[in-house]
Every structure is written in structure tokens, then in C-alpha cells.
Amino acid sequence: MTTVRLPLFPLNSVLFPGLVLPLNVFEERYRAMLRDLLKTPEDEPRRFAVVAIRDGHEVAPSAPGMPDPTARPERGPAAGFGPDPLRAFHGVGCVADAATVREHSDGTFEVLATGTTRVRLLSVDASGPYLTAELEELAEESGDDAGALAEDVLRSFRRYQKRLAGARERSLSSGTELPDDPGVVSYLVAAAMVHDTPTKQRLLQAPDTASRLRDELRLLRAETSIIRSLPSLPAFELTRTPTSLN
After folding, report:
1. φ and ψ at 68, to 5 degrees?
2. Which of 10, 64, 78, 219 is the most exposed place for a label (fewest CB within 10 A)?
3. Ranges for the Lon N-terminal domain (predicted)?
4. pTM of the predicted model as reported, rounded to 2 decimal places
């Protein structure tokens, strides 16, 4: 078992390998994390782990309205995650490589990171200025019929995109290039579909690529059927993903 200890960045969303993650970092615990990451030699990756929050707040209560007007201010690396942070997070996350880190004059940061490798969360350490975690790297197995499943998923994803955007949307034409590697397809589609965090988390921690693709195919067919039968969609940002406040 290959393990690694990395800084931990909990979010209310799921990061997948190969996907880009923009962050605006303003909380002191994560600013401290970025300051330490900037000490990494330029020829080495600035790595941290992203985990989805199961029970807790992405932004710790720090003042009225941030984020709960009735909450008492909390301090420390585990603020907002209860007495046992390990229980507050989903068990599988993704390592992120902070390729671009820009510090502003007020001490906040803009970060552009890319997901790289899935990891299993083994333990969380809250003794420092920010959370760190011991993580087990997870190999990505192909599984049976991953290639054929990827082709089916891409076809279904095309239909799903067009239903979401509307029949007259030209930017999602069939000429748009999409990857053909089954693993890349499985992660791209998982990230692009409009689903809640538990569903995306289930896709992230699928035992292999083929299992993830089968689940995606079922979800895409069901969602496309529902969208097709609705005369109009609820007022929801279906084609946009929220950016973390941090």
C-alpha cells in the first residue's frame, strides 16, 4: 500500500482526475497552506488533496453572515468539521497539483489546480495551522468492456448535452472533440453531468473504469428521458458549476 501525507482542502464538490479546479483562497488556514506550498521547488508539483465534505461547512463560521448568521465564530484548522474531521469527509478524494498560484496584496490567493490521482483518506491531522491527511493512492483499473462502454457513454452524453442546452444551441455540435480514452471519458462525463455531491462521489470511488461508465450510462439515459418529457426546466443553473468561495 502506497501512502502519502498531504495538505487537505475540503470542498462542497468532488474533484476528478484530469479536471481543472479554480479556487479563491481567503481563509487563514488555507492561506497558510498555500504559503507552504509556494516553498516547494519550482520543478516539483505543489500537491494537496481535495475531499468532498459529508457533514460540515466549506467556510467556517467566522462572523455574522459567514456563512451562518446565527453560528458562533470558530477558529483552527478543523473549524466547521466537528470534533472528528475524518468523519466529516467522504472517504475517497483526489490529489490536486496547483500549477498556478497567484498571491494578492491582501494575502488572498487565486489558484488553478488540476486533479491527478484518486486517494483514500486514512487519517486526518489537525495539529498544525491547516489540516493534513495520510492518504492511500488508488490505482485505476480498466474493468471489462471499458472501451465499448466509453463509446456508448459519449453518444449518450452528446444527447444529454443537447437536451440541457436546447435544440438550437450550436456550441455543443457533434463536431466538438471529446477524448476516446475510457478512463478520461469516465471522469470528464462524471464532472460534467448535473448531479448532487453524493452521486458524483459514488462515481469517483467506483471500483474500476467500466463500473463508472456503466453507472454513467444509466444516469445519462434516465436524465435525458426526464429532460425530454419536461415542457420546461426549473430555474436552475444546469450548465454551470459553482466555484468554491475558498
Report:
1. -110, 120
2. 64
3. 6-224
4. 0.81
